[in-house]
Amino acid sequence: MTKKRKHQEDFQKVKLKVGKKKPRLENATDTNFKTKAIHLPEQLKEDGILPTNNRKLNIKDLLSQMHHYSAGVKQSALLGLKELLSQYPFIVDAHLSNILSEVAAVFTDKDSGVRVAAIRLLQFLAPKIRAEQIAPFFPLVSAHLSSAMTHISEGIQEDSLKVLDILLEEYPVLLTNRCSILLKNFVELISHQQLSKNLKSREKISWMLSVNPNRRVTSQQWRLNVLIRFKKFLQALVDGSSGSEEDEGIQEQKENSQFMRNSVCISWKEHASNQQQIQLYENGGSQPRINSAFRLRSLVSVTDSVEKGLSSAENLKGFIEIIIPLLIECWIEASPAQLAAPILGNLLEPESQQLMQQVLSIIYLLWKLTKQHDETHKMEAWLRMNYLVDFKHHFMRHFPYSLQETIKHKKRDPYKSTKYCMTSSNSVDHLLLNLTLCDIMVSLASTSTLQMDSDWLGMIRKFVTETLQDGCRLNCKQLNRLLGVTWRLMQIQRNKVATENLIKAVYTLYQQRNLLFPVRMLLLKFFSRVYEKEELSTQRIRSRSKVLSRWLAGLPQQLALLGSRKPELSNQLIETIHSAASHSNKELLQSLQATASRIYDPLDGTLVLLPAESQQRLVQLVYFLPCLPTDLLSSLSRCCIMGRMSSDLAATLIGILHVRSSFAGWKCQVQDSSVNDVDYFSFLFSTLTGFSKEELTSLQSIRGKPHISQTQLSPVHLYLTDLDQFLHHWAVTEVVCHSLSTIPSRSQCFDILQNGICKYLVGLAVIPDSTAGSILCAMSKLLDQGCILSENLHKFLASCCYSLLYFLLTLDKEDAEHVRKRDVLWGSCISVLALVPRVLRLMLQSLQVRRACREELPVIGQLLRLLMQHGQLRSHMVTSELLVQQIVKDIMTLKSAEVQEQWLTDLHYCFNIYLATHPQGPGATSTEY
């Protein structure tokens, strides 16, 4: 029994003894552990490569937090991004792709705070990123925007409009390139699809306005917000499709584009020297007009999304069929007939007026898109057939519309809070609504449909006429649209009576004072366009407008009164006057003749006040003046020499007067009103002298340096002109000399010039250096064997030559302003001395050494040496050898007691080389000198 018990006890109990440790079990787990500190010093340092913000987070850290589940973390990351990018703008270029992808992804975030932070960050970044930089990533941004616009959440839809505002402001072209998706998104924001009940098939789908009571704003306010963005989007689409910005109101339809004049600017001076090539093509000019129907396909049109947009007439028609009914429904909701409270007349509440304005603006932009396609006339017929009835019924029913104002009046009775009254506003805020409606309606009318549309066209004509007659408060945008409607009405009903009434209404507005500059410019362009249209008319003599003739006659006086206050306006006036003068408009030419003295006044006339571009046109107008009296030629001469217009323009003016003179070489008989010969010579002589009689008289009282160069051996003292004045005068002198040289009778021309010099210049003590040089230049070019010079002229020329040569020889080389005069003045003096030996002899006779001061003796010696060395003068110097010999002798006598200087040695050497070797008479001086 004992053996059996022992066999059964497999698990024997271990007896524990007091004071002994419990034995360790075989399957016990060791729970002891050891710890060691981990030191990461590099992790605590700031990243030396990527900059960080105030929270020590770099761009990678902030972008990684954009994927966090917590809205607070994402919002904090967006704020940190804005802070970091504002401190380090260069990070944008390096991480643009990641930044845009992360920011665009939260457009549809469910938390409004995150979306607001993303919009603010985008608003901060957009102006700093160029369109070329964001273009590769814009499809992703556009996709997130479309997702937000079509999101089920109303808050996300509302915030998507704010994102759209930013992108439309900064990247309109990139946004309109993906118009197919966005157009559908705009439609879905205000409507929903509905199967048509009239058709059994499910292919035809119509759209109807949707109402969502869960929005924070009313349905009408929501539609207004969407339509405002839609209008901006269409405006960007129109601007991008037109290729060039044009005036939407008064820009002429390209019906008569073949009659449009496009001038080519030609510089005959450059053309004569082969510096300018002239190419005349059908549409040439500085700004070619491409009238071909052929268009290159846009580079971005290869994508499917753009092909489904409004790039074709069929796609545009399909979109118009969808959007126009929705817009009409919006109009009906806001129209006066739908208002609950009875309102007198056709007054509109401000919110309704804004909604109706957006509706009409969208339709107007859609109409502009239809005109950009090749099937313009077909599209106009299609629009008229489908929508004219609805437009007349809904739009013209309460035309014209005015704005309703709600005014609060404070009452004395404390128990009554406020009282609201409705009054018709005299403000012009409602005009844009009416004008946009007029613009849409008149685009649907034509000459062939005039009888059918006479009722509502009469309403528009009456409204336009009344608005123009009381249009002192019109702004530029309203007037532009108003003039566009006026022009369209004139094209539809080409009746002289109706057209004259419209022109008279515009002229009434034009005559008002204190008009804004843009308003005045628009009116001027409108009248110019009407005049050009009248000139192109084959029956313009019978249909000439009296109002237009009166307007043309007043243009020269307006130009004279305007002066330099508005150069752009003056330039437009000059263009119109030039066009009318070239067409020999009698009224304008008479007015231009009467105002010419004020326009070409040399002190404060329009010619000298305007910039060079306008001056050229004014100079060209001289050709069309019926008569050129003496006082006008005197003013033109002063304009040429005062330096307030360029020498090239002065040359052009002199050339025009030469053409108007009897010396132009016309084969046919010259008209009686050409320039008088005496006046023409007076003009040339006055221009040649470069100074008026009064100015020359005032110069006689000036003495001493630095303005006067004088010598004791010449009675003529030189007034030293400024370099700019000298160069301008010399350029004009060359043109005058050319005009004088083209006169057939050279001797008579020289006699006239000689009489003028003797009468006005001989006897003056002070003469400008440019005048003296110009006289010598003219003499050298007009002298021939048949010319006989008077003794007074001989002496005057000799004095001028010595004074100029003395000035050039005493000129300081460091005086850069006067050094540039040396070549032309020296050449003129040498030419006259070579052509007229008598002048050289008189100049040598005036060199009385005993009268000269000792400082002048080296100058005389240098002058004699240079004259003897000059090849053209050597023979004349040999003829006057005795005279030169006497001058040298007198100089040597005065300097005999002194040490011989170098200039004396040079003078002695030149005399022995050039003159002493020739056979000499009995009184010859010994060569020992």
Structure notes:
Helices cover 58% and strands 4% of the residues. The chain is mostly helical and 929 residues long. It contains 44 helices and eight strands. The protein is flat and about 165 Å long. The model is unreliable at 243-247, 251-262, 295-307, 338-345, 406-428 and 919-929 (pLDDT under 50). The strands form three sheets. A three-stranded mixed sheet has the order 3-4-5. A three-stranded mixed sheet has the order 6-7-8. It has a two-stranded antiparallel sheet with strand order 1-2. Helix 10 (154-170) packs parallel to helix 13 (219-242) and helix 37 runs antiparallel to helix 39.
Keywords:
about 5% strand; 44 helices; about 60% helix; single chain; disordered C terminus; mainly alpha; about 950 residues; three-stranded mixed sheet
**What structural class do you assign from the helix and strand content?**
mainly alpha
Strand content: under 5%
Number of strands: 8
Backbone shape? flat
Sequence of strands across the biggest β-sheet: 3-4-5
Mean pLDDT over the residues:
80
User: Which blocks of ≥5 consecutive residues have pLDDT under 50?
Assistant: 243-247, 251-262, 295-307, 338-345, 406-428, 919-929
Main β-sheet: number of strands, strand sense, barrel status? 3 strands, mixed
Query: For the terminal residues, how far apart are their CA atoms?
Result: 176 Å
Q: What's the alpha carbon Rg, rounded to whole Å?
A: 46 Å
- Helicity level: 55-70%
